[in-house]
Design a protein that fits this description.
The chain has 335 residues and is α/β, with parallel strands linked by helices. The chain has 13 helices and eleven strands. The strands form three sheets. A seven-stranded mixed beta sheet has the order 1-10-7-2-5-3-4, sandwiched between helices. Strand 3 (137-142), helix 8 and strand 4 (161-163) form a beta-alpha-beta unit. The chain is globular, with a radius of gyration of 20 Å. Belongs to the diacylglycerol acyltransferase family.
Length: 335
């Protein structure tokens, strides 16, 4: 006998979608601090052995993040991510096939405030990554700081996140069997300070490390642009040269992370809060740019590939912008 469940009502679906986004916001704004506090606090309770055993495991497992991490497919396929996908909604679009015998380096743009599109598309299966790109295993780079936090490191590794350092990137790109995709949010934390609705400014003009990495491994470069990524939050005005921008840069130099003062809507009201607006995001993955392998590329060779990448990214943006209500007179600005 087949049991059929009644579909959820629309109001309940919307509440679940909002709750899924709220837990994701919390996971990156508060979970790390809670994990640290729990780890330390447990040492002063009768459950001290939990922290002691984890500390021993942490030491043994310390190299795991830089060796490709440890993904947990049950968590990548969790229903929570599908509710989060439908909240915005978020979609993933491919424009070319990716050969599973090759490794690829994807440049993701823009960062946005919290990189929602990058996380959902590459760290979960909510948008159907494995269906769109069969035989390809995605990895997304994240600040190394987060992998030094007990318990939290295991949570972020479960989705395929790895530290943003050369050792971790090289481990993925040099796998001879192929079938690996390394996504780098090239603009990084600094670009988040310019993430606001209608902005198409990318911190990319002098960022060439990812290009050099691709040349050293002979890995094709793939541009990806996430339309709507910057539309999720408003941000307190922080023009270059302002006191707020100077403080944000100073804190970034100290902590390694940027602190954009963002706001959008609340859970139960729509006037103010930290929950992002319900605005669609579509991440468009471009076609691979062939790269000739060279262990020690010259500056000129890096510049040539970098310029080709900028051109391909601009073409991708111009070709698809009309579909996502981007004004005709809007173009990418590289700084």
């Amino acid at each position: 006998m087949k049991v059929e469940f009644a579909p959820l009502s629309v109001p309940l679906q919307r509440r679940l979608q909002t709750a899924s986004v709220a837990q994701w916001i919390f996971s990156f704004l508060g979970l790390a601090q809670c994990c640290t506090a729990a780890f330390i606090t447990l040492f002063f309770t009768r459950f001290w052995l939990v922290s002691a055993l984890y500390a021993a495991w942490w030491f043994i497992d310390r190299e795991k993040p830089s060796k490709g991490g440890r993904r947990i497919h049950v968590l990548r396929n969790c229903i929570v991510w599908r509710y989060m996908r439908d909240y915005f909604p978020i979609t993933l679009m491919k424009t070319a096939e990716l050969d599973p015998r090759q490794n690829y380096l994807v440049g993701f743009h823009p960062h946005g405030v919290l990189a929602a599109g990058a996380f959902l598309n590459f760290c979960t299966e909510a948008s159907g990554f494995s269906t769109l790109f069969p035989g390809i295993t995605p990895h997304l780079m994240m600040l190394s700081l987060w992998f030094r936090i007990p318990f939290f490191r295991d949570y972020v590794m479960s989705g395929g996140l790895i530290p943003s350092d050369k050792e971790s990137a090289s481990h993925v790109l040099r796998k001879p069997e192929g079938g690996n995709l390394l996504a780098i949010i090239v603009g990084g934390a600094q670009e988040a300070l310019d993430a606001r609705p209608g902005s198409f400014t990318l911190l990319l003009k002098n960022r060439k490390g990812f290009v050099r990495l691709a040349i050293q491994h002979g890995t094709p470069l793939v541009p990806a642009f996430s339309f709507g990524e910057n539309d999720l939050f408003d941000q307190v005005k922080n023009p270059k040269g302002s006191w707020l921008r100077r403080i944000q840069h100073w804190l970034q130099q100290i902590m390694g992370i940027s602190l954009p003062l963002f706001h959008a809507r609340g859970i139960f009201q729509y006037s103010f809060g930290l929950i992002p607006y319900r605005r669609p995001i579509c991440t468009v993955v471009g076609k691979p740019i062939p790269v000739q392998k060279k262990h020690r590329p010259s500056e000129e060779e890096v510049d040539q590939v970098h310029q080709k990448y900028l051109n391909e990214l601009s073409k991708l943006f111009e070709k698809h912008k009309a579909k996502y209500n981007v004004p005709e007179d809007s173009h990418l600005e590289f700084i």
